[in-house]
Amino acid sequence: MNKTSEQSRPYQGAMYDIVLTFGDSITQFGGDPAHNGWVNSLSHLFERRMDVLNRGFSGYNTNDARRVVHLVIPRTKNLSGAYSTSAAATTHLGHPFPNFSPKVQLLLIFFGANDAVLKPGYQHVPLDVFAANIRYLVSLVKDPDSEYYSPETRVALITPPPLGERLYNRTSATSDVNPIKRTNAMAKAYSEAVKDAANDLGVPCIDLWTSIEDRVHRATIAEQASSGIATSPYDGYEKYLLDGLHLNANGNQLLSKLIESLINSNWPELRS
What we know:
38% helix; globular; two-stranded antiparallel ribbon; alpha/beta
């Protein structure tokens, strides 16, 4: 995790405020309790504090994200250009509704796994375009000239995980769908692009690629030291990846712990 240039500030939100997760299928499936989904774990972490919204879109890359982001992140400026986080009071059947709108206190952006598909895969996004898209998504809430500018919103990026190539290829071979070609080298390149963007923009980043990769390699070295041979048929990635691409229960648990650590280090007021 890289350091953020933002200063911690006291949490002054309310119990109707939001943690917003925006990503691809790894985010969407993060709501699956069968695999200890990381988004579900966030809901538990913030229960009685804030609501956690899962806005994961299976199959999406960052080009797709740019097309739907205006439906995901709330607009904060009215037509006159004035900044506001309050909605006009409304009534329904004579009953007044509160004149507030929830604030996004934390935005987690988690793309790259699909962008890193090899050409000519339809999901492929060139690395430079991907990096520009990540910067654009962050700028929507960080740029004072943006219609979505939200100085209260804390933003963090998450890199794509590594690809367990043997496990992914085995899973793809048994699928009825034409296999989409991926490599771990490409996953790493797109992970590095996310880290570079986070460093340039001064926002924290969870390096999920390295976190899993290091654990897999340490386990493999330990196996070789004890038995003289690595016994995992899938190079150890099956410990954290369900199908070589998506997180399994262990992978989700790891990501949940990384997010909690990031919050405690950068924005402890969210947990106070």
